[in-house]
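Before any further analysis, backbone shapes were mapped to integers, which produced the following:

***
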Amino acid sequence: MQLAVSDQIKEKTARGEIDAASAERFTRFVDRCNRELMTHPVITDNRYCTWFAEGDLNRDNVRHFVVQFSVFSNLFLVAQLLKTINSGSLEGMRASKEILANEIGVIFNKPGASLGEVDDTDREGDPDLVSVEGTVDGGTFRFRAAHFEWLLRLGEKLDLGFNDMGKRRHGTPSTLFFCDQLAAIYGNEDPNIAEGASFAVENWAAAGFWKQLVAGLDAFKKREQPDLPLAFFTWHDRIEEQHADHVMDELEEVYFTDGFDEEKFIKGGKEMLAGVEAFWVGLNEQRIAAAFADS
């Protein structure tokens, strides 16, 4: 997964909107991002997700995973609120609010669009509760559209109740480290560090781990739990496919913003990827330990 300077930057340089020296510096910066961020093992070699995608999951594996993911999903709200508060511009604040509001249950609104019928509400999501396009501005709030409530409905099928999921007390040390790093780095007061963390999170999310989770859960569902709702994971997979197309647009925008600090951006990205990695390594170590305990 390698980043490349877009044609848009080349066209702006050709028109004189960006001077040649600045374009060259940006090209070197993209190369640095490729070397120092895009090669991180949590992007290139997530061993837990590779194992998960094979589908050799038992009920305990799935329950543990769902609980830990619910802690991350719920505590992510704290990090996203901090990112909103600490945004360096009104545009940045609004972009952060889009994510936060959607997380808590505001459905994306696309004027003129009709959600219509879907063939598979489990995979595509109930059209009354989800959309992958538009903006929360003018969107409808529904309690059941909150992402955590999607996970609760999944948890119910695994005999997990509201008080079994999503709280700090349910998180392992590695999960809580990840959540705390999100708040500290992704939600950092310094926009350069926060932007680096955000860039890292977007590239981790776009690297394909959602598809691996869907593959593993789908295999488990077909084998053991036919009524397991997967919309939380399939929806995120669909939305991240769209985000992946905009990663370079966002990088180009932040790089040419006044006050951009390359070193802080890279620092934020590296530290955030280390936090993400801790989460998955923790899950992998826990599933291996459980397998040995059962043997």
Notes: Residues 113-121 have pLDDT under 50 and may be disordered. Residues 62-294 form a domain with the Heme Oxygenase; Chain A fold (CATH 1.20.910.10).
